[in-house]
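Structure in, sequence out. Go:
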C-alpha cells in the first residue's frame, strides 16, 4: 500500500526515532501545521516506553524497559491532550534489613505518617534519623517546586536560576559537592543513607564520593518531576504512555512509519534528505526542511558520517518476572505492602560503595545492589483476571563493559546473584513463586546493557543515551535557547542525551526540539 513518503517531495520535518521524545516532537510540530514524517526502526512505537507480552502463553503486559513516570510535565500531557492516567503508589519504599540477628525492614509511606516514624525508630533506635530524613526531603521538595517549571522554559543562566530558588544552598551543594557528603549532612544510618543515594545511581555508573556532579545530576532528575518527584504508575503499562503520544501525533496529522531503519542523513543549507530501508529491504528517501533527531547522539553522528563521540556505557541489569503469588518475607511484613513501592535490596551506603569499587575493577559485584517493584499491585489492569503479578528488578553497578567478554554467561551469573540476595530476605524461594510460560519455563527475563543496545539501538545500553546534564545553561551560549543544537543548523536534537534536559520518560527532549523549531520562548 503506498504511503505518503512514496509521493511527497518534501516534509517540513522528518523525525528520526519513534521513542517518546520523537513522538512528542512530532505531535507538537503537526499540531502547529507542519507536515511531519516519523521513522521508527522497530515494528512498534515507543522505544523503551513499551508494554509487551514477554512470556509465551502468559497473558499479561510487561513494561519491558522503563516502568514508572515522574518527569513527564503535566504541561505536555495537557498541551497534547494525552489520554493517559497516572496513579500514585500507596507505598514509597520498603527496605528489608537483617540487623542484630533479626529480620526487620524500613517502611516509607507515600504520605509519611506514624507507621513510617515507627519504622525509622525501630531500625535506628531513635527519632533523630527520621527527623533528618524529613528535613532533607523537605528541602528537596522546595527545590523541586522551584526547578520543575523551568524545565519547560528556555534555559536560564546559573545566576538567573539561583535567583529563583528558595534554597540556593542545596542547589549549590548538589552541583559542587559529592552526593555522599550532601546526603551525609542529613542522614547517618548506613541503610537510610543508601536508600537516598540510590537515586543518584539508576542507570548511572557514578562514584558517590566524587565531586564530578555525575551522581548529583542523576539524583536531581529523580527528585524534581512536576515539583514533587513522585514516581507514578501509568495505567495500562508504559506502552500506554507512548501509545497516548502516538495517538496525539496521528490525530494532529503526523505520519508515523514503523519498520523504517534510517541509514543515512544528508544535510544541505535548506534542509536534508533522510534515507531508510523498510522491513522488506526496499530503500526510500524523503526531503525535509528540518530533521529532528530522536535517536541517541552517537547514532546521529553515524547517520551524518561524523566521527562518533564518546561511546556511553549503561550500568543497569533489568529483570522482568511474572509471579503466581507474591513471596512471603522473613520479617513477616505484608508482601502486598513491601512490593507496592520500591523495594531496596542490599543498597546500604557501604554496599553501594563496595559494588562500585568492584565494578570499576572490572568485576561483577559480589553483592549487586538492586530494587524491585510490582506494577500490578497498583495497576491490576495489566494482568487482567489471571491472578498473576508482574515484577521488575533493576540492578546497579553492572556496567556494559562487564558483559563484553561473555554477555550470556555474565548475565546469568548476575541473575543468580540477585535472586539469591532476594531469597535471603524471603520466607520461601522466589523460584517457587514464578509463573511458568506455555513451554513450562519460569517467567524470568533478564537484559544486560548490551541486550538493551541490541533491542533499542541505545549505544552501550545507556538508558539516558549518555551522562545527564544540569538543567541550566552552563555554557553561556545556550542561555535563552532550548538546548537542542546539533552539528547542522537544519538538524535539531530531541533525544535524552542529545538535549540539555533529556532524561527518563519525560518528553522534554521532544518538547524542547519542537519549541526551538517553532520559535517559541
Amino acid at each position: 500500500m503506498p504511503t505518503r513518503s512514496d509521493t511527497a517531495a518534501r516534509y517540513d520535518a522528518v523525525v528520526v526515532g519513534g521513542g517518546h521524545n520523537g513522538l512528542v516532537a512530532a505531535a507538537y510540530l503537526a499540531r502547529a501545521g507542519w507536515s511531519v514524517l516519523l521513522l521508527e526502526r522497530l515494528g512498534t512505537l515507543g522505544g523503551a516506553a513499551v508494554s509487551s507480552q514477554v512470556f509465551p502463553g502468559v497473558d499479561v503486559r510487561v513494561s519491558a524497559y522503563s516502568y514508572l513516570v515522574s518527569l513527564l510535565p503535566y504541561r505536555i500531557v495537557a498541551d497534547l491532550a494525552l489520554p493517559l492516567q497516572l496513579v500514585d503508589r500507596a507505598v514509597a519504599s520498603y527496605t528489608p534489613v537483617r540487623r542484630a540477628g533479626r529480620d526487620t525492614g524500613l517502611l516509607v509511606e507515600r504520605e509519611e505518617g506514624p507507621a513510617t516514624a515507627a519504622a525509622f525508630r525501630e531500625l535506628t533506635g531513635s527519632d533523630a534519623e527520621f527527623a533528618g530524613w524529613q528535613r532533607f526531603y523537605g528541602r528537596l521538595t522546595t527545590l523541586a517546586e522551584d526547578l520543575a517549571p523551568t524545565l519547560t522554559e528556555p534555559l536560564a543562566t546559573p545566576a538567573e536560576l539561583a535567583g529563583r530558588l528558595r534554597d540556593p544552598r542545596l542547589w549549590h551543594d548538589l552541583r559542587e559537592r559529592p552526593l555522599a557528603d550532601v546526603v551525609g549532612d542529613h542522614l547517618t544510618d548506613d541503610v537510610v543513607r543508601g536508600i537516598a543515594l540510590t537515586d543518584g545511581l539508576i542507570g548511572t555508573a557514578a562514584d558517590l564520593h566524587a565531586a564530578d556532579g555525575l551522581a548529583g545530576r542523576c539524583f536531581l532528575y529523580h527528585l524534581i518531576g512536576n515539583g514533587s518527584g513522585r514516581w507514578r504508575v501509568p495505567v495500562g503499562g508504559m506502552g500506554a504512555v507512548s501509545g497516548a503520544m502516538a495517538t496525539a501525533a496521528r490525530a494532529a496529522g503526523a505520519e508515523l512509519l514503523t519498520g523504517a531503519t534510517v541509514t543515512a542523513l544528508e544535510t544541505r543549507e535548506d534542509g536534508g534528505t533522510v534515507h531508510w530501508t523498510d522491513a522488506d529491504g526496499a530503500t526510500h528517501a524523503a526531503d525535509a526542511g528540518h530533521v529532528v533527531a530522536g535517536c541517541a547522539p552517537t547514532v546521529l553522528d553515524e547517520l551524518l558520517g561524523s566521527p562518533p563521540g564518546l561511546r556511553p556505557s549503561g550500568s543497569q541489569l533489568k529483570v522482568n518476572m511474572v509471579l503466581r503469588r507474591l513471596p512471603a518475607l522473613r520479617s513477616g511484613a505484608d508482601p502486598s505492602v513491601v512490593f507496592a513501592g520500591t523495594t531496596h535490596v542490599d543498597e546500604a551506603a557501604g554496599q553501594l560503595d563496595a559494588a562500585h569499587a568492584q565494578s570499576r575493577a572490572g568485576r561483577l559485584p559480589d553483592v549487586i545492589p538492586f530494587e524491585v517493584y510490582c506494577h500490578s499491585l497498583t495497576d491490576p489492569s495489566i494482568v487482567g483476571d489471571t491472578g498473576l503479578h508482574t515484577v521488575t528488578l533493576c540492578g546497579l553497578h553492572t556496567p556494559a563493559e562487564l558483559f563484553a567478554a561473555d554477555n550470556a554467561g555474565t548475565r546469568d551469573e548476575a541473575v543468580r546473584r540477585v535472586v539469591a540476595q532476594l531469597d535471603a530476605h524471603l520466607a520461601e524461594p522466589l523460584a517457587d513463586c514464578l509463573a511458568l510460560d506455555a513451554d513450562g519455563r519460569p517467567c524470568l527475563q533478564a537484559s544486560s546493557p548490551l541486550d538493551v543496545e541490541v533491542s533499542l539501538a541505545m549505544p552501550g545500553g545507556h538508558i539516558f543515551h549518555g551522562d545527564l546534564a544540569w538543567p541550566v545553561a552552563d555554557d553561556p551560549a545556550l542561555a535563552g535557547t532550548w538546548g537542542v543544537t546539533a552539528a547542522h543548523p537544519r538538524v535539531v536534537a530531541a533525544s535524552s542525551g542529545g538535549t540539555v534536559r533529556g532524561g527518563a520518560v519525560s518528553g522534554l527532549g521532544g518538547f524542547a526540539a519542537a519549541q526551538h523549531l517553532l520559535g517559541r520562548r
